Amino acid sequence: MQNENRRFTVKDMKEELSRHKDDFELIFTEPITGDQLIFQRLKQRGDDLVQCEFDPPEPDIQF
Asked: Does residue 39 form part of some domain?
């Protein structure tokens, strides 16, 4: 898994995901609150950089 002294690469992500079946749901959460983030897109930002973009969690609206 990723640590502070190395980059997390596409290869790393593929290796992590290869342990799971293709039809498993994949969710992303905000580490402090546990709120689920909504995947928006992957965008190439350089010759060797891909950014994962997420929308913020939907606010809980209580009436």
From this structure: yes
Tally of structural domains, the chain: 1
What is the distance of C-alpha 27 from the center of its chain?
8
Structural domain boundaries enclosing 36: 26-58
pTM of the model: 0.66
Q: What are the pLDDT digits (tens) for 45-63?
A: 999 999 999 988 777 666 6
CB atoms within 10 A of CB 39: 13
Q: Report helix, strand or coil for 49.
A: strand
Identify the pLDDT of residue 61.
63
Its sign, for the CA torsion 47, 9, 25, 33, is negative
